[in-house]
Design brief:
The complex is a heterodimer of chains A (307) and B (242). Helices cover 12% and strands 59% of the residues of chain A. Helix content of chain B is 32%, strand content 26%. Classes of the chains: A mainly beta (307), B alpha/beta (242). Bound molecules: adenosine-5'-diphosphate and magnesium ion.
């Protein structure tokens, strides 16, 4: 489990989480290998073996649950269905993420189908990191997450996702349904290089009065990599929606951003912004007046941008 | 000592901006460059920092020709430049910028000290991003603080007064005077501000791409007609008409 441990520490502060005794389930090469429930967080295997049901009790306050998935062998095609049931008023942090380690010429794939059911007034912070390690030649590390979130009245979900390198192909689909007063905040950080490809699709429906969504995607496309950003926000009530896709291109990266808005209520206030471009020359120049080389300046600007 | 010899620079369209400009800056002291808008002061600063190269002329630092050195190399020799128009960065915090300026990790006390020199409270600002959410005056002060964080040989401040209130301005003058007392670096301050002109050892007037006056404060200042746009006549907001 050496490579798994290395991946675990890349996708989360695994040692800290474990020492805190937080609820967890570790998936390795398509099997659940370690699982711990706590008083307020129960992790149960689905009867058909397809994944987990995670129940967070109303009494949970600031607790954490970690469900990382790692693949360290070639030709694994892992498909898992996890459902999160968050009780009324609960407050929890969910740490997910996926790491794939394969050698040159090998391929492996992980698809996590996650559903979140947030009861009234509950609050969730979801953190997810995707990484690929190992060989750099002719690999095919694929991560295709599908996330569907149902936010009941006055619930709040904050999703922070990042993919910082080594994933050859990813298609991320996120769908959200928001009831009255519910809020969804999504922050995506994406870096692609080489021949990597990343497709993001957000589809959020604001059904309830005073519901709100804020999507911000920051991405850097390097090398020959390709990214697509699609976001659709539908406002069916007095609500607010904001989508922002901000991309930096270096070398021969390509980015295709297509935000879309549908308003079916006159008090639906929806905004989208998309900006794609290279690093501003004056930013590089400013950091060079601090003594940084051009490459160091570019690195600092990208690091900050993706944080 | 920094020496500029016969510097010429034209815009990409071929309009001459600096015309055979020569200037010497000593190793200590505070020189103020003043003169009408569009006269070429910022262009001069950009030439010294290496952000643009002169079409003709030579730049010497301590007798060594640095004309061919790029921005990074000149910064490493101790030339610092606080821009007239500061640059904004998404995701880089005030603290990060001060650290990038200083070139090494800095502690809370140093962050606080640097920001207080420009009249900002560290607690409110250190974790803010240097992005579009900051006002013009705020970003200007952070720009100055990031340059104060550096150990420099020559520091250029380009219109440091812009967007700064009266109270912070007094602190800023104090920072310039402190640097002058320490005698570690020489300062070249581009300014129209009478209060800044008052603390100058030397005043250089640049007009239409050339140095038209250059002398001690007492020699040059009386020849600049002053005016007071503030009805209260408070000195910090007094400007100088040329
Ligand atoms: N890159 C440039 N392209 C075209 N014109 C420029 C450029 N840089 C400076 N200028 C022009 O040069 C003149 C001097 O500018 P500047 O050095 O900024 O003056 P000052 O700082 O004294 O107000 C201005 O007319 C300005 O528009
Ligand atoms: Mg200027």
């Amino acid at each position: 489990m050496n490579e798994t441990n290395a991946l675990l520490s890349l996708i989360s502060d695994w040692d800290v989480l474990k020492s805190e005794g937080c609820a967890h389930s570790i998936r390795e090469n398509g099997r659940s290998v370690e699982r711990l429930s706590t008083k307020n967080i129960e992790i149960r295997a689905k009867e058909d073996g397809s994944g987990l049901d995670i129940y967070v009790a109303a009494a949970a306050r600031g607790e954490k649950v970690a469900i990382p998935a790692c693949i360290t062998a070639a030709h694994i095609d892992d498909l898992v269905y996890n459902d999160f049931h968050i009780a009324e008023g609960a407050d929890v942090t969910i740490i997910a993420g996926c790491g794939i380690h394969v050698k040159n010429g090998e391929e492996a794939r992980h698809s996590g189908i996650h559903r979140f059911f947030l009861a009234r007034g509950s609050k969730v912070r979801y953190e997810e990191k995707h990484v690929g390690t190992g060989g750099k030649k002719d690999t095919r590390r694929v991560i295709d997450p599908v996330t569907e979130v149902f936010l009941d009245e006055d619930s709040f979900l904050e999703m922070d996702t990042s993919q910082i390198g080594g994933v050859d192909s990813t298609t991320r689909e996120t769908r959200g349904h928001l009831a009255r007063g519910a809020r969804l905040v999504i922050r995506e950080h994406l870096l692609t290089d080489g021949n990597e490809k990343a497709v993001t699709k957000f589809d959020v429906t604001l059904d309830g009065e005073d519901s709100a969504v804020d999507l911000v995607s920051r991405s850097v496309a390097r090398g020959e990599s390709y990214q697509e950003y699609h976001s659709t926000i539908t406002g069916n009530a007095p609500c607010t929606g904001h989508s922002e896709c901000d991309s930096i291109i270096t070398e021969h990266g390509r980015v295709n951003a297509c935000p879309a808005l549908y308003a079916a209520h006159q008090d639906a206030s929806l905004i989208h912004e998309a900006a794609i471009g290279k690093i501003a020359g004056e930013q590089i120049m400013k950091l060079r007046t601090f003594g940084l080389s051009e490459e160091e300046a570019e690195q600092k600007i990208i690091e900050g941008f993706l944080r | 000592m920094l020496e500029l010899e016969n510097i010429c620079w034209s815009t990409p369209e071929g309009v001459p901006i600096l015309k055979d400009l020569s200037l010497r800056i000593e190793d200590t002291g505070l020189a103020v460059v003043t003169g009408p808008n569009g006269g070429g002061k910022t262009t001069l600063a950009r030439i010294i920092a290496g952000l643009i190269s002169p079409d003709r002329g030579t730049i010497l630092l301590d007798g060594v020709d640095i004309t061919a050195l790029d921005v990074t190399q000149r910064a490493r020799l101790g030339i610092s430049y606080a821009f007239q128009q500061p640059v904004r960065f998404k995701g880089i915090t005030v603290r990060d910028l001060l650290e990038l300026g200083s070139g090494r990790p800095i502690d809370e006390a140093q962050v606080c000290n640097l920001l207080s020199k420009v009249g900002l409270c560290a607690r409110d600002y250190k974790d803010r991003e240097v992005n579009a959410s900051l006002s013009g005056g705020e970003i200007k002060r952070i720009e100055i603080a990031s340059v104060l964080a550096r150990s420099s040989k020559l520091v250029i401040f380009d219109e440091p007064e812009a967007g700064i209130d009266l109270w912070s301005f007094n602190g800023l003058i104090e920072a310039f005077e402190e640097m002058k007392r320490e005698r570690k670096a020489s300062q070249l301050i581009i300014s129209h501000q009478e209060r800044i002109l008052q603390v100058a050892d030397r005043i250089i007037v640049v007009e239409n791409g050339s140095v038209v006056k250059d002398g001690s404060r007492d020699e040059v200042l009386p020849s600049l007609a002053t005016f007071s746009p503030c009805p209260m006549g408070r000195d910090a907001v007094t400007g100088v008409r040329l």
